[in-house]
Amino acid sequence: MTDPTSGSVAPIPITVEFTGGLEILFSNERKHKITVPGRLDDGSQPNISYLLRYLVDNLMKDQRKELFIMEDNVRPGILVLINDADWELEGEEAYELQPGDNIVFVSTLHGG
Amino acid sequence: MGKDENTCATLRAEIAATEAQLARLKRDLVSAEDRAVANSESTSPAANRNKGQNGSESPWPLLQEEYGRYGRQMIVSQVGLPGQLKLRSAKVLLVGAGGLGCPAAQYLAGAGVGTLGLIDGDTVEISNLHRQVLHRSRNVGKYKVDSAIESLRELNPLVTYIPHRTHLTPDAAPSIFNEYDIILDCTDNPATRYLISDTAVLLGKPLVSASALRTEGQLMVLNYPPRPPGDKDGGPCYRCVFPKPPPADSVVSCADGGIMGPVVGTMGVLQALEAIKVITAPDVDALNQTPHQDPPALHIFSAYSNPLFRTIRLRSRRINCAVCSASATVSLDTIKSGSTDYIFFCGSASLPSLLGPEERLSPQEYRERHPQVVHGELEQAHSRPHTIIDVRDQAQFGICNLTDSVNIPISKILASMPTPTNERLQGDYSGSQPPSWLPPDLTSDSNDPIYVVCRLGNDSQIAVKKMKDLGLDRNGQRFIGDIRGGFRAWREQIDPEWPEY
């Protein structure tokens, strides 16, 4: 699939979803199909940490970055789900993105 | 004109006074009814259980009426007679008798849970009725728990109902929870949610937790199985899933964000279902085999998404959880003594007081500066030209707005605003475009004043501050200020017919 000598690796298409009110920060769209590079400049594979930076820099038009990111991580009260599992079951921010992955960001609700 | 207005004002005052008196009478009635019930306890249905018609021991474990009442669910194999007997001996506590608690209590009472406790210190408001389905219009002003129990008694008089007319407090929580087998979190704020979870874990009670806002809901069964702290086989608790509370400013209530009745109703009904599943679960058998159990999950409901539901696998207990791990720091003592401080832990939203008094006008002061244009006069007849910016969101603006006001939702202002530390210097947008939400006349050379208004007078201050940061006041040459107290104060001071939603 990839040629390790050429350095060119197929880009990775993934789906990113926002729910629980977070979609407001992303142009009011819940579902975004994006493509990340197959390999980063330093040779590493893109992981969730990379995705967070990517989303803030490229997808998030809203300036209120602090409603999504705090101290280089998702802010407290947001769950990250990797293919319908809590990211803590998958290695958290070190999880390396795979083609077709579905990454969901859920803000907790408190009303009742 | 003056005479009619006076009549209206007098009538309004009389209605308000009468309603207050009615609410007082309703509360007195409830206290009297409670005393009456306590006095007749010996004749309650519970005391007559297992007695036949003539008072002799019955060979059947349920009352005749119970076979009829619960038959449709008892013939479902997952329930059966064993499940019904478990339900009858179960004691369930619902914390919150609102949008989640009402439907949850309704189904649990209908299903024949033996004892239902409800805890809530609020009284019924008319804005609750669209979703809090146990409350009736006639009960506005009554304690929610009393209003709910009144409806529940009509539904199923065989259940024992216990009202707790108070908000849940850390010092009282352990002794109240101790009386119950399973807890339902039907509350609306993070501090209480942590308190409920901590207390449930430390007392070994399973917890069914739900929440809802606008068009979405979330549901989790926590601390199930309810093993002691340090036992890794126990289910995760609220702190395992959310070790840190969200920033207080990011927490939106149903009053501010809105809520659709069937959305929160769906979540409350599901809480009742999960509670019934926990109560009627088959016993661990003699070989001590753990019955089949689903891994911990978060269920997300989203009314305008397809699919409507999705289920997320959750983590297990956190090895360094502050409550349910071997290295726990929270105990019943730290809860009761207040050294586990939930209000401090969750913080409180800072209500902005960003503006000085000279930047704020009461609705009355605004009206004095800009007398109302008498109907029929030309629009240009404004005594003094000015701009009103209404920063409520579009849906709220659509419900009621002032003629000639301009709607710029606060979310739009905040979304497009670079933080002052980067990009643009204060007061200087030359060379870069002013933000797209600004109407052109606001960036003109005009010195006509700008007034910002919102629902309660908080967002309006933020908007004024942002506009001044952009330099729109040209160093004080142009007045930019807000209407203190927003439309709530507007209604009180200027227009009593302004819709209050």
UniProtKB/TrEMBL annotation, chain A:
There is a cross-link at residue 112 (Glycyl lysine isopeptide (Gly-Lys) (interchain with K-? in acceptor proteins)). The modification 1-thioglycine is found at residue 112. C-terminal thiocarboxylation occurs in 2 steps, it is first acyl-adenylated (-COAMP) via the hesA/moeB/thiF part of UBA4, then thiocarboxylated (-COSH) via the rhodanese domain of UBA4. Pathway: tRNA modification; 5-methoxycarbonylmethyl-2-thiouridine-tRNA biosynthesis. Signal peptide: none annotated. GO terms for biological process: protein urmylation; tRNA thio-modification; tRNA wobble uridine modification. The keyword tRNA processing applies. SUPFAM superfamilies: MoaD/ThiS. It holds the Pfam family Urm1. It is found in: Cytoplasm. Keywords: Cytoplasm, Isopeptide bond, tRNA processing, Ubl conjugation pathway. CDD domains: Ubl_Urm1. One of its GO terms (cellular component) is cytosol. HAMAP family: Urm1. Acts as a sulfur carrier required for 2-thiolation of mcm(5)S(2)U at tRNA wobble positions of cytosolic tRNA(Lys), tRNA(Glu) and tRNA(Gln). Serves as sulfur donor in tRNA 2-thiolation reaction by being thiocarboxylated (-COSH) at its C-terminus by the MOCS3 homolog UBA4. The sulfur is then transferred to tRNA to form 2-thiolation of mcm(5)S(2)U. Prior mcm(5) tRNA modification by the elongator complex is required for 2-thiolation. Also acts as a ubiquitin-like protein (UBL) that is covalently conjugated via an isopeptide bond to lysine residues of target proteins such as AHP1. Belongs to the URM1 family. This is Ubiquitin-related modifier 1. It comes from Penicillium frequentans. The gene is URM1.
TrEMBL record, chain B:
Keywords: ATP-binding, Cytoplasm, Metal-binding, Molybdenum cofactor biosynthesis, Multifunctional enzyme, Nucleotide-binding, Nucleotidyltransferase, Transferase, tRNA processing, Ubl conjugation pathway, Zinc. Its EC number is 2.7.7.80, 2.8.1.11. Residues 382-499 form the Rhodanese domain. CDD domains: ThiF_MoeB_HesA_family (cd00757). GO terms for biological process: Mo-molybdopterin cofactor biosynthetic process; protein urmylation; tRNA wobble position uridine thiolation. Its cofactor is Zn(2+). Its main location: cytoplasm. The active site is at 254 (glycyl thioester intermediate), 454 (cysteine persulfide intermediate). It is found in: Cytoplasm, Cytosol. Plays a central role in 2-thiolation of mcm(5)S(2)U at tRNA wobble positions of cytosolic tRNA(Lys), tRNA(Glu) and tRNA(Gln). Also essential during biosynthesis of the molybdenum cofactor. Acts by mediating the C-terminal thiocarboxylation of sulfur carriers urm1 and MOCS2A. Its N-terminus first activates urm1 and MOCS2A as acyl-adenylates (-COAMP), then the persulfide sulfur on the catalytic cysteine is transferred to urm1 and MOCS2A to form thiocarboxylation (-COSH) of their C-terminus. This is Adenylyltransferase and sulfurtransferase uba4.
